[in-house]
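Work Package 3 (structural annotation) set out to generate three-dimensional models for the target panel prioritized at the project kickoff. During this period the team completed the workflow that converts sequence records into discrete structure tokens, so that structures can be stored uniformly alongside our sequence database. As a representative example, we reproduce one entry of 343 residues exactly as it appears in the project archive.
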Amino acid sequence: MANITVANSSLEDLDYKPYLTTLYVSAFLLSLFSPITVVSNTLLLMAIYRDPFKSFRTPVTYFIISLALVDLVTGLIVEPLFAVYYFACHFYQTFRPGKQFEYLFTTSAFLSVIMLSSSFFLVLALTTTQYIAITYPHRYKVLFTKRRVLVAVCCHFVYFAIFSSLQYTKIPTDTYLRINLHLHPTVVGVLLTVAHIFLYKSFRRFSQRSKAFRERSSLSRSMHQCSEGAQGSKNEAKHQKQLTVVALMLSALLLLCSFPHIVSFYIYLYTKPMSWDFLLKISIALRVSDVIMFFKVALDAYIYAWRHPKYRKAVKDALLCYRSREAVTRDRETEHEMIATGY
């Protein structure tokens, strides 16, 4: 994220109120996105943990868990810290509301690099994995084991934590921002676009094969020849289809929401010299693009819920079990109270 540092003497000749208003609106929206993101991803993680239908025990689930954790941390820490800083800037009508608020901004900026960059990697990994799963199913089972996926996820978090720490070294800020922009949103974004196109084409062929398989299965049922193996293959094909649609929607959403941010950042970093008026305008564009990215974070879990019926059933089952435990606990407390009072 690009932050504006303007000398107080320059503010007298500059109409900076539109930028502060943008910060205020951004803070308000982040305050809305934060609880939505936290609740939705908590439910997603709870459903995967309980897994009442044994449908989330595949290696690709670890990518979904990691993405949910990234979104959860974003909603729980990053968005509230940015919101507090933006509210403070608007309240004090300054770009420097105080050291304590700047510390919050520094912390949120550090975490946002890790979280948002991780989103690109995880969605790319999920898209690539699903492409191999529906195109080369036998290779998929050999290449993608739970151990390998876990190692890849852990290594990527370590890498982004180290990379995010570089912004606090002696590396010039513009140099760090350029490296980050080229390596992560740009390169990974291009790879994600290619993976999305390949997955979409493969998915169309996969859907045609699945349709032909369903027709054969329907004919077999009419002749009472439907076997357990055929039913298992049908369920697996349905599961892969649902995951593929989720991967396509997540990748499309990420590409769509990240495009304004990438374009704004390129303009910010490579437009030299830059007048104060233009700096404020491009900074407003960056703040708006940030909000779009956080909106994407809030939508991730809902896309998964929308396209995966077993997830919705798992959440419902988990909530019902929780309510049942509460009812049992209340009944036991009432029973103990009645025994203690002699009634």
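Residues 68 and 207 are 28 Å apart (CA to CA).
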